[in-house]
Design a protein that fits this description.
By secondary structure, this protein is an alpha/beta fold. It has two domains: about 15-220, Alpha-Beta Barrel (TIM Barrel); about 235-355, Lyase, Ornithine Decarboxylase, Chain A, domain 1 (Beta Barrel). It is built from eleven helices and 17 strands. The chain has helices at about 15-30, 40-45, 45-55, 70-75, 95-100, 110-115, 135-150, 170-180, 195-200, 330-335, 340-345; strands at about 10-15, 35, 60-65, 85, 105, 120-125, 150-155, 190, 235-245, 250, 255-260, 265-270, 285-290, 290-295, 305, 320, 350-355. The strands form four sheets. Strands 9-12-15-14-13-16 form a six-stranded antiparallel beta barrel. Strands 5-6-7-8 form a four-stranded parallel sheet. A three-stranded parallel sheet has the order 2-3-4. Helix 7 (about 135-150) runs parallel beside helix 8 (about 170-180). The two termini are about 30 Å apart. Keywords: Isomerase, Pyridoxal phosphate. Its EC number is 5.1.1.1.
Length: about 350
């Protein structure tokens, strides 16, 4: 077959064991099963692979997604776990999503009336995020109508500041959510994101928790000691060329870096088109031949350059961009002046996803 001998030169390796351990730790702290977000290609880790690993985990109740396309993709895997859509679909998509068994978000009486009779709904309550959902004073009426129609399964809200040191607003949001739940029959209620699980622990009356980035091994700096979470992904790419630049010569676009002396460089097959942030130029390091070495010159679309002087590096050798130890996604995010979410979810399709035990 054409292309069967052509291989990716960059790989994102996911540790199933690390993911499973993180999920167990988070479920134990929340004291409820998990509704695991696998949106945005499972935070860059690979939708299908992560969904399959998670679906086997005894602490995972279901999988949460952000778009109808993601919902359809997860439902097609037939994993035997509920799929919850967290953002509103178009009216024309309701019937098909309900046929697939996808749990649907509802935030208004109009949406409640539009649901097919065989749908299952999760009432979206806006307790202060002010992004989606019914305000508490309206949510009760919407929830009651869903209950009358026999389609109400769950209710949820989203914390805006549970990952901040000041938890006063998170407590206020939860108080508002509890006020809505008190006016409705028992539901699969869920509120805590990863920050909420780490900062607030078990919340009374909640039946599920939704740890996003925490599931993949990351916590806000002030919460990193709460649980021993392990980053799940290791990103690597191959050396494609090794050459020497002479003292004083410039390297890459814009000539930002000049060799202070004759310098051996490795060209590596990964760049900003693969999701590695261009803003990390001049600050980033990688691990090669067991040593931490600097990238030099501007990061390119498909390639980057690494100073490998004094090392025995050959074409085909592996360069690690991040992993559980040494250089982490948090380091890369700091170099690029962004957050781990953006770095992980920005990984491109040219990077081959692999799952290890």
């Amino acid at each position: 077959m054409p292309g069967e001998m052509l291989f990716a030169r960059a790989h994102a390796r996911t540790s199933a064991a690390a993911l499973e351990q993180n999920l167990s730790l988070l479920a134990r702290r929340a004291e409820v099963p998990l509704l695991l977000p696998v949106k945005a290609n499972a935070y860059g880790h690979g939708l299908e692979a992560i969904s399959r690993v998670a679906a086997r985990h005894p602490d995972v109740w279901g999988l949460a997604v952000a778009t109808p396309q993601e919902a359809g993709a997860v439902a097609a895997l037939e994993l035997g776990k509920p799929v919850v859509l967290l953002t509103p679909p178009r009216p024309a998509e309701l019937e098909e999503l309900a046929d697939l068994g996808v749990r649907l978000p509802v935030a208004s009486l109009e949406e409640a009336e539009a649901l097919p009779a065989h749908a299952r709904a999760h009432l979206k309550v806006d307790t202060g995020m002010n992004r989606l959902g019914a305000r508490p004073e309206d949510a009760v009426r919407v929830g009651q109508r869903l209950h009358e129609r026999g389609v109400l399964e769950g209710a949820y809200t989203h914390f805006a500041t549970a990952d901040e040191p000041d938890l006063s607003f998170a407590h206020e949001q939860f108080r508002r959510f509890q006020g809505v739940l008190q006016e409705l029959p028992p539901l699969l209620a869920h509120a805590s994101n990863g920050g909420g699980i780490l900062s607030l622990g078990a919340l009374p009356g909640m039946r599920l928790a939704r740890p996003g980035l925490a599931s993949y091994g990351f916590a806000p700096p002030h919460l990193r000691g709460v649980l021993p979470l392990t980053p799940v992904m290791t990103l690597e790419a191959e050396v494609t060329y090794v050459h020497t630049v002479r003292a004083g010569e410039s390297v890459s676009y814009g000539g930002l870096w000049h060799a202070p002396q004759d310098t051996v460089l490795a060209t590596v097959g990964l760049g900003y088109a693969d999701g590695y942030p261009r803003n990390a130029t001049g600050k980033a390091f990688v691990t090669v031949a067991g040593e931490r070495r600097p990238m030099v010159g501007r990061i390119c679309m498909d390639q980057c350059l690494v100073d490998v002087s004094g090392l025995n590096v050959q074409v085909g050798d592996v360069v690690r961009f991040w992993g559980p130890q040494d250089i982490t996604v948090s380091d890369v995010a700091a170099w690029a002046d962004t957050i781990e979410y953006e770095v992980l979810t920005g990984l491109g399709t040219r990077i081959e996803r692999q799952t290890d035990r």
